[in-house]
Design goal:
alpha/beta; five-stranded mixed sheet; two-stranded antiparallel sheet; disordered C terminus
């Protein structure tokens, strides 16, 4: 009996040591994988004003009739243009995340929701999502000037009216990447990864037409 107990203890210790080695190996592999992964950023669009170029200047009114100046140095604050649509399935669940990211990453940032189409549809959408206090602009020209082809798309403009980051955004990580790219002084995190020689495993963001 005592011999069987001794053998079982030996086997348990062997199993425990093997499990420890396995955990260490997995931890090492996860670390290597993390190092090799490039940061996931918003997929930069190839059209419209490039990062580093002046944003188009427009003088518009939002759905509540408030004047909204876009581009130029007059706003004296950073602006995040967020292009959305009431029919975009990605835009709706992303709205709460958008507000959290703006509050966390850029307090004081001027957020402008932008779209086009029938005002009645957007008024209903604004009520449904409690966006009455938000700047909400309907302008086909705005989308054309920024060459927005996919939704949701976000464009970060600095205090002097220069485009600092842009791209299609489907997740909080994509939104945060715009501010990270601005801080790093790069067009996108993909550009940063390429510069650092880590390109190759960048996960592209999708988009809804």
């Amino acid at each position: 009996m005592s011999e069987a107990l001794f053998v079982s203890n030996i086997l348990l210790w062997i199993a425990l040591l093997a499990l420890g080695v396995l955990v260490l190996a997995l931890t090492r592999q996860i670390g290597l994988l993390h190092e090799r992964l490039a940061p996931v950023g918003a997929l930069a669009t190839q059209h419209g004003p490039e990062v580093g170029e002046p944003a188009p200047e427009l003088r518009l009114s939002d759905l509540s009739g408030r004047p909204v100046a876009i581009g130029g140095a007059s706003p004296a604050t950073r602006t995040l243009l967020f292009f959305l649509s009431p029919t975009c399935p990605v835009c709706k669940p992303l709205l709460p995340t958008l507000h959290r990211v703006v509050a966390d990453e850029a307090p004081g940032l001027r957020l402008i929701l932008a779209s086009d189409g029938e005002p009645e549809e957007h008024h209903a959408f604004r009520r449904e999502w409690n966006l009455e206090d938000e700047l909400y602009v309907l302008s086909t020209e705005l989308g054309l000037r920024f060459a927005v082809a996919k939704l949701p798309t976000a464009i970060l403009i600095d205090e002097t009216g220069i485009v600092r980051a842009k791209g299609m955004v489907n997740t909080r990580e994509h939104l945060e990447s715009l501010f990270a790219a601005d801080e790093l002084g790069v067009a996108s995190l993909q550009a940063f990864a390429e510069r650092e020689g880590r390109l190759g495993s960048v996960a592209p963001a999708g988009g809804i037409s």
